[in-house]
Specification:
The longest helix has 10 residues. By secondary structure, the protein is α/β, with parallel strands linked by helices.
Length: about 200
Amino acid sequence: MRKLLVTTFLSLDGVMQAPGGPEEDPEDGFTHGGWTVPLWDGDLDRFMEETPPSPFDLLLGRRTYEIFARYWPDVPEEAGGKPLNEATKYVASRSRPSLDWGPAVLLDGDVAEEIGTLKETDGPGLLVYGSANLIQTLMRAGLIDEYALLVFPVTLGTGKRLFADGTPPSTLRLVDSRVSSSGVLMGTYAPAGELVTGSFATEAR
């Protein structure tokens, strides 16, 4: 069975949109693209090299696939391009995009069902980058095995959020944590079941 890992860059207020550049994803008028760049350092490079270990396949939404396809094919092996370019890209889309950055497979039916079936096959782990809408589908279907969350010390105010309205209430278990020299919190979490609540109030005597 394949493990499914979500790796996401987040602001302190939970925004994950367009971390890598101003033109990456301006949907809905987002104007803060590239907010991770000033805080990127060697600690983050090492974390990304280690999470997850190669080989892996990619599981992407259409928009993220198209963003990656404009950049990664020209990135040399020594700059980290090899594992991404060699990975099979499973692309979830209701349209029929051109999948020129291959090898690539279109998922255009019941995405949760197709990915659930894919997880049951033999093969490398499945890695999700970006893909905000796809992640919501994966959460609701209980298909995510682990989250690698890199939380940057910035607030953005608007934008697509990882844990958006409608996210199923649940508990996560911290598996590993680090802090970069620039103050980025790097945490790895695993789902740990349903949300459990309680109260600090004591009964009146």
